[in-house]
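Catalogue entry: protein

Sequence with per-residue C-alpha cells
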Amino acid sequence: MKYLIAGLGNIGDEYTNTRHNIGFMILDAWAQASNVFFSQDRHAFVAEIKTRGRTFILIKPTTYMNLSGKAVHYWLQKENIPLERLLVVTDDLALPFGKIRIRMKGSDGGHNGLKSINELLQSTEYSRLRFGIGSEFSKGHQVDYVLGKWDAEEQKNLTTRIEKVIESILSFGTIGVEKTMTNFNSK
C-alpha cells in the first residue's frame, strides 16, 4: 500500500532551517533516520521508505511553496495514490511551537502551499499535518518571522518534536487518520 507524504517548503539555501520549511525538515530527518536519500525528479525531490508493509513516497516540491499543488498533483497521479492516502506536512502560525494538528480535510487557513494544492486537486478532502511555529512576531513582520531561522529555544526542542511528527506519519499509514488524530492532536 502506497502513501504520498508531501513536506512543504521552499528550495534554496536562503530557506534552509527556516520555520516555513518545517515540512522539508521533517522529511529530511525521516529519510536520514531511515538511511534513504532524496533524488531530484519531476517537480520534487523524492525518496521512498518501506516499512511496516507500507511504501511511503516522500516529496519535497521544487516548485516553491506557492505552487506546491503542481508537485502533489503530479506525484499522486504518477504513483496512482488515492487522495485518502495523501498527507501534507506544513507549518502553521496559529499553533504554538511544536504543537501537531492533524485533520482529514479543511481549508487552506491562509497558507499559500495548501491553497495551491486545493486548487490543483480541486478538493480539500485530503489529510494535512500542521506543525506549530508560533506567532512571536510584531505587527507587520509575519513574513520575516515565517522565513526566519529557529531561535535557540526552538532549536533545542525541534529534534524531539520532529521525532513525534515522524511517529504520527507512520501512524497515519498504519492505523489511519482518525486514530492518529486521537493519538497525536492533543500532544
Q: What stands out?
A: The two ends are 28 Å apart (CA to CA). Helices lie at 22-33, 68-78, 112-121, 142-146, 152-175, 177-184. The chain has one domain: 2-184. The mean pLDDT is 94.
